[in-house]
Amino acid sequence: MQFRHHGFAAAFSVAVIMAAVLAIVMAVPAAAHNPIFTPGPHVTYQGGIEVAVGYERDRASGNGTRQTEQEVEFEIEYGITADWTVEMQLPFLDKTESGRGSSGIGDMALRTRYRFWRLDSPGVQDSAAVLLQVKLATGDADSDPRLGSGSTDVVGGLLYGHEGRRWYYNLAARYRLNTEGEGGLEKGDRQFLDAVGGVRPVLTGYLEPDTVLFLEFNWENAAGDDRNGAAIADTGGWELFVSPGVFWTWRNVAVRGGVQIPIAHNLEGARAESDYRFKLQLKYQF
Amino acid sequence: MRKWMGMAALAAGLFAAPEAATAGSHAYAVYVDGLACPFCTYGVEKKLLQITGVKKLDIDIDAGAVKVTMAGDARLDEAAARRAVAEAGFTLRRFERTGTR
Predict the structure, then answer these.
(1) pTM of the predicted structure, to 2 decimals
(2) Which positions in chain A touch B93 (Cβ < 8 Å)?
(3) How far apart are CA A203 and CA A212, in angstroms?
(4) Residue A115: closest CA among chain B residues belongs to which residue?
C-alpha cells in the first residue's frame, strides 16, 4: 500500500480507522508510564492491550537543505505476562526535502520488552528491563526522499526506571545495528543514551486527572554510512537534545507529548542539523 | 434549627445509602506495593474485577490500599487477590478482611 505525493491525509485516515477498528475489536487491559522520548521498563500487565496513535514532526536544516518529516504512527502493545510485552509500530510518513516530497508507509517495528527486575515498596516501583526491536524494510526505499531504509535493523537496549508518587527517574542505553539495504547502502550503527527526571506536581487520586512533567536528555551517536563498502562523506556524528514533556492521564486514557531541542552536536561534514522533534501521542488501555 | 436538622438528615442519607446498598457484603482491604500512578493502577482495577464475586473497588493510591466489596455472600480468597495483583505487575503486601458491610 503506497500513498504517493499528497497522500498524507489518506494515510492519516487509514491510521485513525485502524485505531478505531482495533479499539472496537479488542477488549482486554494494559499499563505503562514511560517518558516521551526515552523507552522505559514499564510493561503492560498480563493479558493487557494498549493502543496508541501518535503524531511526530521533525525538522532539520542547514547547508542549503531543509528536511521536514511528519509521521502518524499506530502502536499496539500486548502483555504476555506481567513482565513481558510485545509491541508493533506502524508509521505513515510524509517527507519533504529541498522541494521534493514523498508519502507512504514507513518501516514497521516489532518490539519486545522483558522486565527482569522489579522492586515494589509503598508508593514506589523500581524496575529494569531489556529491549529488543526489529525494524522491517516495509517502507519504500526507492522514493525520494526515502521512506524506508530498505534494510532489516535490530535495536537492543537496557532500561531502568524509578517511579514514585512524586518523582520519576529513568536511564536507558540502546544500540542499533543497521544492516545493508537496497542499493548497497548501509546506514551507520547508532548508539542512544538517555537520562530522565520527572515530577508529579500535584498528587491526585485514582479517578482524577494526573499530570507528570518530564525533562529528558537524549544523546544519539551515529557511525558514518557506506555504500558497497565505501564510506559516504558528511554522515555520522552525535547530537544531544534536551526534551521537556508532559504525560497526562485520566484513568485508562493518556496523552503525552514533548519537544526535543538540540543543545549540542558534533556532526561530520557539511549537512543539515536537527532544528526540533515534536511528538504527541494518545494512548488507551483496554 | 430546622435548616440544620434538614442538612443533618441529608448528610445521614448520603452516607447511609451506599451502606444500605451493600448491606451483608464481605469487605476486604488489599494493600499493594508499587502503586505510584493512576494510569498504571488501572491494571489492578481490571484484574481484581475479574475475580468472581468482586462488586466494587475503592482505590487509595497514597495509602497503597484497595478496598474490595464483594457481592452477596461471595468471599475474596487471598491467593486469588495475590495472583490478580501479581498479574497487574505489583506486589500484594497485606490482605485484611475488614468485616461485613
Answers:
(1) 0.83
(2) 122
(3) 10
(4) B89
